[in-house]
Amino acid sequence: MVAFGITPNHFLALLRQFFLLGVFYQVVAADVYNFSQVEQPEISYSSFNNRLTVLGDFDSVSFYDYVGQSNISSSETNGSNYLYVINSQDQFQPLYEVEGDIEFFYKIEDDSILMTGDFSIENLSSPLLFNTTTNNLTSIKDWSSNVTGTIKTVFYDDYYKLIYFGGDLIYNDEIYGVAIYDWTDEKFVNSPFKGFNENATINTIIKVEDYENTEYGSIIFGGFFYSLGDEDLLIHTFWESESELNETGSYINKTNTTVTADPENLVSLKFATISTVNTDSSSSDASTGIICPGNEDTWLLADDNLGSWTATLPFEVTPSKLRIYNSQSDGTGVQSFRVITSPSDGIMNLTYIDPNTEKFVYCDAYCPLLNSTYLEDLVESNGISFYAVNNTRNEGTLGFGKNYQEYEFVNELSIDKFTIQIMEYYGSQAGLSGVELYQYGVVTYANDSLNQPSCSDSETSASADLTDSSVWSGYEDVNGAHLTTTVDISNGVPENFGVIFYPNITYSGNYSIDLYTPGCDYDNSCSKRGIVNVTLYDSSSESLASQLIYQTNEEEKYDTIYTGHLTVDDGAIPYVDMFLSDLTTVTGDEVVFVADRIQFNIISIDESYYETVSNNSNSTSNSTIEEYLRISINGLFEYSLANFSDFDYDNGQDVAENGTTNTYVGNSTINLIGSTILSENATVNGLAILNSSIYVAGEFESLYGDNFIGIDLNGNYGYYNDTSNSSSVEDEFVIDGGLDGSITDIFVYANDSLILVGDFDATVNSTTVNELNTTTSTNDSIRGIALFNGEWYSFGNGTDTEDDIYSFTNIIFNNNNEYFIFNGDNSSLLIWDNSNDYWIESSDFTLNISQAITLNGYTFASGQLAFMDLYNANNGAYVVGDPSLQSLPFELTSESSIYSSGIYLNSSMSAIGGNFVAEGYIYNLIFIDYGDNNYTFGIADVQWDDEVEILSMLSYEDSLLIGMQNGVTIDDTKYEGLMIFNLSTNSTSSSQPESLTINEGNVTVNSFVIDSSNNTLIVGGGFNQAGDLTCNALCIYDMTLSEWISPSFSSSISGTIYYMQAYSSSKLLISGNLTIGDDTGYFATYDLSKDEISFNDDLNKNLNDSVKYFILVDEDDITGRIIGIGENFIAYSNGGNGWTRIDDDLIMNATTFSDIQLITLETDDDNNDETIFNKNQTLLVSGFLSHEVYGNFSSGFYNSSSWIPFLFTESSSGSSTKINQVLLNEESTISESTYSLSKGGKVMLIRNVVGVAFACALGTISLIGVAYALYAVIGKNKNYNSKTLESRVAEKEMLDTVPPEQLIDSLDHAKHFTKTTAN
């Protein structure tokens, strides 16, 4: 993650330890992800005018809010992927390091995620189950030993707890395309249909739920396949016989006998309500007339119009087939149609005999109907008048005649309305000449009107007699109309009061007889319902059976009153009477008696109704016929759970054998769409259910468009038909002609839209495309990525990629912003900011995730995640009092840049120095005028050395004193170490100090101290000479005379000074790496009154390295509290007893310090014993800090006993980052100390603030405060023991050239900020 410090793996190990130790405590199992918040001290932002500036070497910066944040917010992951958990505050933690790429997440229950892809976690390979409650990973048991291939999709059936894996898989060496895993029992189970054909690939799986029976429904597979593993399931065999057709065309079985009995009966449409759409005005009456085809009526639609014909029945029936007579009028006729029934409101699956091939064919949305002339010629050319065979159930017949075709209802379902919707027509008009509906068995209604046949001239029909018709009335409930009466039984039950049913049965044979009784809930008569006596009589009026039937049922019911043989003899038929029983016991004097219908179901017909056909009859030649119907599948397969409810899952055995009928795989509309609508060898890559529709996407052509079509579901039954055990399809529909290229996948978004990805550019029909990208785009192409919600939306510019996009996910992140993330081949990534409608660059922040899912309030994501509060920081940022982070008001243009120093010139202007190039060709020093809309400017009359770096700055009167590493050229003259800039003229001063030089290495000026009484500048750093003078580490510049002054001890001192601060009226405390005479040390005192320097033994005690910067907490007392930092340590001294380190909790081999600063608190910290600093203070430490618990951060507080991380930084390059300096508003950086000199005057020594060379840090608020103390020491009494000081003559000669504005005589204008650099 970083060049040093806590690595991600180290942090993950610590994280797990913290869980165990209770650092991340677990309240309950569901709260395993406890984000330990970091409570920041209450800083008094008002004490520095609500602005804190951080400068350093970083690209982005963020507040530290919770434990471990910095270790997981950085993008420096060295290419590693992680599994993250994210809470609602955008806080996230890595749970596991992931080797490889997780491609897809799938929700398994409310607390588990199935992860697939090419990856492993802790030596566990994909696919893996992750439990979000326990934080545990579980392998799919025995996956590697049972399954090979690549997973492309997963579906979880939460009712059966089964996980369906789809892909180019092979399970158990013989099941292709799919593997099914029992999540509860942790074992694989057999696919009941044995998967798919060899080399099949399953790309997508969805489920159409059965909301009435939740254990059922249909699972729909999409992919590239053409058959099932158990191919016999696709073959529906109906019979195997030797047969022929006689001269009338009747079906003959293998014994050469003709069936003259028909088990199906016409449903009367006489009292049906007929309605039409777009009927021709000339044939409006014919819409009713066609229910009796023999009357030669023809119903026609208006010219060049489509329309429909609907019959609403007064009762419910279960139809077996529909016979349709096409228009006999020349130039008219129906070419294709569909049948829609109610209450299912779905398109019916039909089976018919193709007259051209005499083979069974399925149809649904477009069922063909031959032209009447063509059909008649075809039938007559075969020498027959009609063709009929056993239907697919072997319960009735199916065929065609000269003027009609029959269509069997594949699914048994009750209907009360049916519509014939015309889809295509011949000539100029669509029309029909007849419609007949059939059902199995014989139904007789108590309401005799309903028994009347559709054709009034029909010779036979069922009938019913009421013993007293005047007292009966009709009542209609959800199941249709029935009769009801209220009988007065105060004087006893009347004898033989009721109804007699006379069924229209014409064949002797075996029957079962069902009596239907309406429910009492519908008319609220339950308390008054009684008992009826039902008796069956044979054709000779002998009683065959008698039962007492209670009518107190709440819902409709039926009772089987007889099963057995019935004889029809010379027109005499059996009948049933239903009379009110005298056993009826009700409270009161009235009983409610209801009567509905009775149904005779044909079990078998007596053999006497089979006629032997002579061998010399006029018939077709004998042949062996093995009729079967193969259900074709092509890229789509509907697996009905109800159909397979009795299947032997354990053995996966074959059940479809020759000569038997299987109903496991139906000819559902979904299966038909694949085989009849999609092009051959279609590939379905995506299926989605949205807004009552199934969307099919992939690579195919179709009548409904290419690569993308829709299927409307009937929502009345929850999109599923319990009767047919299949998806309730209402219609297929075109979506703008489809797309002009293949679709890789589709994803449901927000339950109202689809996201499509693939190799496409536009819709086939060039549909209008709306543009989502409103900020930068002029591209309305849906190239490769599109959103569809009934209209098309383009994401505009940014979707161009040569890589195939294979996945989509969305995530709510970054202050409730929503992002769409598209992953493609070759690790390509596209990120769309859906909250602001534009594409973002992946370098803005790291959101390189492949999948995200939200469960129980947490979001789980895989990939690389890094989020910072401020990006594009350009090495600096403002912390304002919200607190919040703001960018500096300029951009850097150089690749390698660093800020090393900074200063507030006044409350509205600051200067920042370092080594950089800013926009506008501003080099190394930039001024920011906050009062002038953040106007920025630089120094125009300077030529900078390539390796120059501004290390320290001090503002004094109208001059800005600039300490440097290396130097600049002004008017062709080279100046090293120190430069003076005139703030009133915004130009370099006309008089510049001569260069500081060093024997080896680079010159550095690290520290300044102003003696305003003498207008001299005390300079500390790394140098040997000032002009021609010997000045080792410390030199004095007389700003009045523009000359360097060498202290008397200059020849006896060597090394580097890092920092200087006044602590009395005439003394400075100096830290550095120094040699004085023959001794070496790190702390020295400089007595200005004596011009002497010496080591401070108390402060050098138990000190093993240089102190780069220190704070005199008690200001004028070097025996009091002092805080100091070295390159790899931080310590305090109190009472002159040496140093005590406070970095025990830090990982010191990974920590470097750059800056310290005392910050004022809003309220006192009562836990602070003031050993180190005051109760109203806290210590802000900056650099690069690595903590045992918190990980890495760049700035943090030390509250006298523990560390609190404040800010952390990162670099997009992956290099280590740090904060070098914290800069506060100038009003909080000035403090005064007055001292009584021997001559009674008051002087002030301006205390400078320096940074440290090793970290390029700048001083902080408390350091600047001592500036006035040094001023007080020197004051207006210039007392340097001048006889020991050497002056350059040349500089005396320059005295008259010093401009007046450089003469500083006001203490109140003394301001500074400096930086130190180590050699």
Instruction: Count the beta strands.
Output: 99
How far apart are the termini?
29 Å
Strand fraction equals over 45%
Radius of gyration: 48 Å
Helicity, as a percent range: under 10%
Question: Mean pLDDT across all residues, rounded?
Answer: 82
Short description:
This protein has 1319 residues and is mostly beta strands. The strands form 24 sheets. Strands 3, 4, 5, 6, 7, 8, 63 and 64 form an 8-stranded antiparallel beta sheet that branches. Strands 18, 20, 22, 25, 26, 30 and 32 form a 7-stranded antiparallel beta sheet that branches. Strands 19, 21, 23, 24, 27 and 31 form a 6-stranded antiparallel beta sheet that branches.
Describe the structure.
The chain crosses the membrane at residues 1249-1274. With 1319 residues, the chain is mainly β. Helices cover 5% and strands 46% of the residues. Strands 3, 4, 5, 6, 7, 8, 63 and 64 form an 8-stranded antiparallel β-sheet that branches. Strand 73 (959-970) and strand 74 form a beta hairpin. The longest helix has 14 residues, at 8-21. The two termini are 29 Å apart. The model is unreliable at 1-8, 13-31, 238-260, 611-627, 652-661 and 1226-1319 (pLDDT under 50).
Give the topology, please.
Elements: H1 8-21, E1 51-57, E2 60-63, H2 69-73, E3 81-86, E4 92-108, E5 112-121, E6 124-125, E7 128-131, E8 136-139, H3 143-146, E9 147-148, E10 151-157, E11 162-171, E12 175-182, E13 187-189, E14 201-209, E15 217-224, E16 235-243, E17 257-259, E18 264-266, E19 273-277, H4 286-289, E20 299-300, E21 308-317, E22 319-326, E23 334-342, E24 346-347, E25 350-354, E26 359-363, E27 367-368, H5 372-381, E28 386-390, E29 397-401, E30 405-409, E31 415-425, E32 431-440, E33 442-445, E34 463-466, E35 473-477, E36 480-488, E37 498-502, E38 509-517, E39 531-537, E40 543-550, E41 557-566, E42 575-580, E43 590-595, E44 597-605, E45 610-612, E46 623-630, E47 636-640, H6 669-677, E48 683-690, E49 693-699, E50 708-713, E51 720-721, E52 726-727, E53 729-734, E54 743-749, E55 753-758, E56 769-771, E57 785-788, E58 792-794, E59 805-813, E60 817-824, E61 829-833, E62 838-840, E63 846-855, E64 858-866, E65 876-880, E66 884-887, E67 898-906, E68 909-918, E69 922-929, E70 935-937, E71 943-944, E72 949-956, E73 959-970, E74 973-982, ...
Parallel strand pairs: 56-58
Antiparallel strand pairs: 1-65, 1-95, 2-94, 3-4, 3-64, 4-5, 5-6, 5-7, 7-8, 9-11, 10-11, 11-12, 12-13, 14-15, 15-47, 16-46, 17-45, 18-32, 19-21, 20-32, 21-31, 22-30, 22-32, 23-24, 23-27, 23-31, 25-26, 25-30, 28-29, 33-44, 34-37, 35-36, 36-43, 37-42, 38-41, 38-44, 39-40, 39-42, 48-49, 49-50, ...
